[in-house]
Amino acid sequence: MVASYVLSTTLVPVLLIWVLGTQRGPHAAGPSRFDRFRERYHDFSARVVRRRWIVVPAYLAVAALIVVVIGGTLGRAIFPTVDAGQFTLRMRATAGTRIEETEKLANKTLDIVRREVGPQNVALTLGFVGVQNAAYPITTIYLWTSGPEEAVMQVQLNPKAGIRVADLEELLRQKLSQELPGVRYSFEPSDIVSRVMSFGAPTPIEVAVSGPDFTKTRPFAQRLQKALGAVSSLRDLQFEQELDYPAVKVDIDRQLAGMLGVTANQVGQSLTEATSSSRFTVPNFWADPKSGVGYQVQVEVPPLRMNSLEEVKNIPISRSQDVQIDLRNVAEVTQGTVLGEYDRYNMQRMLTLEANIAGEDLGGAADQVSRALAKADAPPQGVNVAVRGQVVPMQDMFSGLELGLIVAVIVIFLLLAANFQSFRLSLAIVLTIPAVVSGVAVALWITRTTLNIESLIGAIMAIGVAVANAILLVTFAERDRIGGAHVPDAAVSGAASRLRPILMTGCAMIAGMLPMAVGLGEAGAQTAPLGRAVIGGLTGGTIATLIILPAIFTLLQGEHTRKSASLLPADRGGSDAPI
Fold first, then answer.
1. Considering the entire predicted model, what is its pTM?
2. HEC sequence for 161-176
3. What does each C-alpha distance from 547 to 40, 42, 434, 543 come to in angstroms?
4. Across-strand partners of 388?
5. Cα 569 from Cα 579, distance rounded (Å)
6. How much is the pLDDT for 552?
7. What integer pLDDT is reported at residue 220 of this predicted model?
8. How far is CA 32 from the centre of its chain?
9. Is 83-190 CATH 3.30.70.1430?
10. Cα separation of 138 and 140, whole Å?
């Protein structure tokens, strides 16, 4: 904008003199085709101005109705949904499944995927089964699995396959549940934008239940799961944590252990070394005297040997007078279940429900989830429920942009008032903005596009261009009014004289946005909402500027030529500036 302003005030006048300096008079003897069109527009605009008391209220009512009715039906999202031809699938087998069995299930899952889409349509598959070994310094912030029963698979489809990922996910949900019952699946975002906007959540919808008393938190979270199950747009609804993970419980008889000289610390260290590794109890490093490289030395029982309760009971704990004391001598060993994963938020333990969305936009799904949570039972004392995932950043984005748009309109109004020295002229220009907003709403509704950051940026761009066109028309109309013309005549003549530049500006902007609005090419769907919003907003704004704005100008300025006080204190006493 700065560059265009500089060029329009410096280079363009010089070029105009070079091109038109030697030309005199019109090129043709008679009126051109555009001149005849302008004459018809002049007559039409005059008729609209004469009916301004009907036209202006009807315009405001229709614009408000479109914004409320059509705008209320638009979907909401952070960014447009882009079909990149890839998806991420998380598989959760039965709790405690060994990693070898999980790998077999993961391979069966990928076989089902290949069968449904066709082997030739699968370009690449990538899978990770189980958890990262503690001996390897690999961060789990990018790839998180909580146990050997989990697997994460990424599938890249052939770009020429022509398969819509959302439809494929619905099909796979049905097929996988039929052929692999008991295995839970959840689709997760595969593109980097969705991952970042989820703020660590694996799915767009995440409901976290936290509280100081876990005996109250778990039953209430399970009731919420049933309530959310009634929401038709949610898919893959499940707990992120494994609630009943198989475990071996060791209950130490402290009195007997004390009599044998065994402490709880000894029992814990012996269990850790036998079932995992000595590196967690006694880190031991051996430095190679030749190379100086340090190596970690650890001792562990082969996992295949630790395969029953009897093996656990036979773990040696200590020796007393040449007598070995096993775990069975000082503790009761039984099978049980525990929470498979402990997650905390603000130091409070929490359970988290995750869910995907199908057949609904993010905003609509968030509203349904809020209604379902409101209908559910009231949480126990101290238990908190928070909706996370992409919902919170979406709500923050819309509230921030709405506030920013309101502030922008106020700033535009004040700047125009300072420039024109008139609140009436500023109001006339600002009243074209409802047409822009309604045009954006209609364009998004027709193209089934959601309200997102791209479409909102397009709306702001359209408002800027529409306001510039309105300023152009009002400037010339006010010049004619100050020159002595009646207000209706000044409004019509100003609109007719500026018909060509306003149409050229609007049509050029719309034509330039058409390729973007179509959304062709790689990642074209990401920016298509911006182009559609600009086209719709400029169409509505241009129509309002050329047809409605002369009537608004006449209605606000009155019917006769008049002189009124300027807003400038130095000009008090009368000037040609209107108030």
1. 0.78
2. CCCCHHHHHHHHHHHH
3. 13, 10, 14, 6
4. 206
5. 13
6. 94
7. 92
8. 51
9. yes
10. 6
